[in-house]
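User: Continuing from earlier, I have the next pair ready.

Assistant: Great, send them over.

User: Here they are, in order.

Assistant: Folding the first of the pair now:
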Amino acid sequence: MTSPAAGPAATPVVLFDLDDTLMAHREAVATGIARHMRARAYQGDTRAAAQRWHQLEEQHYTSYLEGSLTYEGQRRARAAAFAEAFGEHLDEAAATAWFGEYVRHYRDAWTLHDDALPALDAIAAALPSVRYGIITNGELAFQTSKVERLALQARMEHVVASGDVGVAKPDARIFHEALRRFSGAAPVSAGAYVGDRLRTDAIGAARAGLLGVWLDRHGVEPVAADAAEADEVGVVRIRGLDELPALLAQRLGRPNA
């Protein structure tokens, strides 16, 4: 009598945020908006302008994630508000065109953080059966174009985007959906999520049952409530992705050992 065939071995899954975690988003934004300013002959401090553009992104992209603006609407709102400061008044069609011009400059500046690929390689060496994925708040097509441009598609088994799933981080459902997609091929033995935002990424992931890792590249001091909740749910704070392989080897173990 033969024994039933063993099912696929359980594997660890490590999920990442994309912008400002793997991809150097802020740097690309600063370069992109400076080039766009030159193209439109805007005069002013490009560093201050990049900060203003970042603030507008935070404001209007949050409105999109909350459902009060469409994806294109938040783009137009950001373009119109930024151009207004330079005396240029944009209607909807002009704002759409303006943003499209900016995106071309932004896209040309896409790069990975220097520690991204070495960390992925080191994690795979420490956890040979590890599987990678991305969970991102954004539109699937645009975020996937970043993954492809940065040559990450061969490494990332799934890209899960809020615009496709219908819920955004820190909602536990987007983390659960990512794990569901991974569990279709083989059981998931343990999971971790790494992102640069404490509440949206690390606390959200921890609340969803993952190891929440906060990538704090800039030494941010969180508000007291967020710090207390992070401690409560076991968030781990790192300053660079170079710290991640040893942490995950310790916390996720070697499932095939």
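And the other member of the pair:
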Amino acid sequence: MKFLIYANYLPHVLNFRGKLLEAIANLGYEVHVLAPDIDSHTKDYNTLLALGYIVHAVPMQRTGTNPIADMKTLIVTYRLLRDIQPDYMLSYTIKPIIYGTLAAWLAKVPKRFVLLSGLGYTFQEVEESGKRSGFQKLVHGLYQQALSRSTKVFFQNPDDLNLFKKLQILKSSIPAVIVNGSGVDVADFNVLPFPTNESGNIIPSFLLIARLLKDKGIVEYTEAAKIIKEQYPSAQFHLVGWIDENPAAIDQVQLDEWIASGIINYWGKLDDVRPAIAASSVYVLPSYREGTSRSVLEAMAMGRPIITTDAPGCRETVTEGLNGYLVPIKTVNELSSAMEKFVVNLELITTMGKESRKLTEDIYDVHKVNAFMTEEMGLVDLNHSS
């Protein structure tokens, strides 16, 4: 029996779905990975091969809108699936979902699953305004065509599911379930001490990890940091991430200005975010919308309190006043006020951090999440099946 996962970026396969694939392989399935640009990611490619997985290259413009390039993606995907003949396929991110699911339907793949791990810029502000551009209507129409040919759709928060129903992208006849994000391996993200000063007091040290996109709340984070820094110079603000190929990305000039100002301590892109989380005492994600943020879950697992937005995929991770605070999206003053609470009352960092860890163990443990997904996909233990 063959299980195939279709992704748009090879390094994310291990980072976000590695434990899921491990669980599926342990059930006795032959695991296949389909992704673009595998020649550019030889380390990840070799790691996947060493794990016994079979990796296939597919041509894809991750963020482009060239219809000829996208048609090539669809055709090559169809041919690959026809040759591989997987029994199950799981696709996530926009192009694998759309072209992968359509190709799988054409290639008669029996079980076709979709994971909506975040909606991206093609859904920005649609919920609030109710208006859609021509491009958004086109993308949503393609989603509708793909999802109508899927076996089941996984959402990472109820807001995304409700929006897809409201926009009539998801037909009522297609089963849909909500999963608690991608999960986090609590054994890999241990609780570490908070950074302290020479007197042994906790340093109010804030951290944001994200692709440097405006809709991640990067601008609001830096503006709030300026306000706090003026009043409390000892406060620290860390930023981990990179400028992505995305219409919502900030430009290099903007990033250079923030770094030069001395307000932001920029770490760049990290393969391992744990040192940055260890150097922080509070995790901040002022995102406009998420699936369920993996970086928030990792910070929670390491015992960090959370400040995030009262937005889809963000609000689920915080119980207000228990393990952190929720603020409205696109607000700087409310964000800085939430930060100030931790600066003036350092005990909150310790007490709320403990609650974050507990929530992670109870709800977001990757093994619990993966057990739910494999069950919902109808995967059985082939090692012990008759």
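Worth noting for the second one:
Residues 15 and 383 are 26 Å apart (CA to CA). The mean pLDDT is 93.
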